[in-house]
Automatic annotation (TrEMBL):
It comes from Aestuariivirga litoralis. This is N-acetyltransferase. InterPro entries: Acyl_CoA_acyltransferase, BcerS-like.
Length: 380
């Protein structure tokens, strides 16, 4: 007789370790899954270390058959999101489960009950934890590993969510770039115009003034994306956490800032695709994983990078100068990485209906290769 599924909240370090362990068995036969580093995931789930918890309430759940964990989910309510949209939407994330409708149903019920108790009338996700973290469920592009800070999934996840009553809210797209040698014509034209214009200063991030520079970057981002679907602004604490993460991972040239007539107007941030480096470590840095990571980090440039952030102040949207500034910051980081030997890049994620951005990316060779879906469901 099959044991029934039970769900309980995560309590204590042993449960938290079990929460992080759930996907290891699920993806054992998937060569494209990359185990995240335990040390990073523990910090992400730690209310003392992740500034998300300063403005959000979170519950983590584990599903069991007997004593065996068979699934997990998070439920979260972000105060900043609720204040901005006032739409009764709570969120879920970290969804991983065996291919069993009973497990999915039990996890969804636990998360939705928790959200309903706090006044939510709908749930949306997956977000792990917010739209500024891992966003959406992979629904196409399973044949390649995810880039840094992007999710992976098993193909049946979408089917199980849809069978449980979830429907599409929005898709986001990841674009792939394979370096062909010469700079694409559209990028070269924008870069040449920017560098020839005395009103434009195109520069890297100054790591000696890291916090001041990140204030500039976050100011551009919060202005650039303020009208985007689901946008929640970055907080000062999140900016500080970003600064701490960037210190070891990147040089100033991983970031490009464009100033127009003395005002910072556009920016682009790239990250090394550390998933290439941690694949095969099983989430652990000991005993020798730290040496592999350090070698890759300091001894050679990455084979691939990801651009998770690019923004242009709203007053320049739809203007000729805005088009030049937006493409010029991308061209600058592209030139830096290509000059070091990097051969691949990802721009992600891009809202499916952000056609100006999509057309710009496609104009210089980006190919859509992964789609992530954000689902929603009424729970009132």
């Amino acid at each position: 007789m099959t044991q029934s599924v039970s769900v309980r909240p995560v309590r204590g370090k042993e449960d938290l370790k079990a929460f992080l362990d759930v996907p290891f068995a699920l993806y054992a036969g998937d060569p494209n899954w990359v185990a995240p580093l335990y040390v990073e995931r523990f910090e992400h789930l730690d209310p003392q270390k992740n500034p998300y918890f300063r403005h959000a309430e979170v519950e983590l759940f584990l599903a069991f058959r007997g004593n065996r964990p068979v699934g997990r989910i998070s439920a979260q309510l972000c105060r900043l999101r609720s204040e901005r949209y006032q739409d009764g939407v709570g969120q879920f994330g970290f969804l991983e489960a065996e291919n069993d409708p009973d497990v999915f149903a039990a996890l969804i019920e636990a998360a939705s009950a928790w959200l309903k108790q706090r006044g939510a009338t709908a749930m949306q996700g997956p977000f792990s934890f917010s739209i500024n973290d891992e966003t959406g469920l992979l629904i196409s592009g399973f044949g390649t590993p995810p880039s840094v800070m992007m999710g992976h999934a098993l193909p049946y996840y979408a089917e199980r969510l849809e069978a449980a009553g979830f429907r599409k809210a929005k898709d986001v797209i990841a674009y792939d770039f394979i370096e062909q040698g010469e700079m694409p014509r559209a990028l070269k034209s924008a870069f040449d115009k920017a560098t020839a214009d005395k009103d434009v200063v195109l520069r890297p991030l100054d790591k000696k003034q890291l916090m001041k520079e990140l204030q500039t970057v976050v100011s551009i981002a919060n202005d650039a994306w303020s009208d985007n679907w689901g946008f929640v602004p970055w907080t000062e604490e999140e900016m500080t956490a970003l600064a701490n993460n960037l210190k070891m991972l990147v040089t100033g040239d991983y970031v490009a800032i464009a100033e127009y007539r003395g005002e910072p107007a556009a920016m682009a941030i790239t990250l090394p695709n550390i998933n290439d480096w941690i694949a095969g470590l099983g989430g652990k840095l000991l005993p020798l994983g730290w040496a592999k990571l350090a070698w890759n980090l300091f001894a050679r440039p990455p084979a691939a990078v990801r651009m998770p952030l690019m923004g242009l102040r709203r007053k320049y949207h739809g203007t000729p100068v805005g088009a030049v500034l937006g493409m010029a910051v991308i061209a600058r980081v592209r030139n830096y990485h290509v000059g070091r030997g990097t051969t691949r890049g990802e721009a992600s994620w891009i809202l499916e209906d952000n056609m100006p951005m999509r057309r710009m990316i496609e104009s210089f060779g980006g190919k859509p290769y992964k789609t992530y879906r954000i689902y929603e469901k009424l729970i009132g």
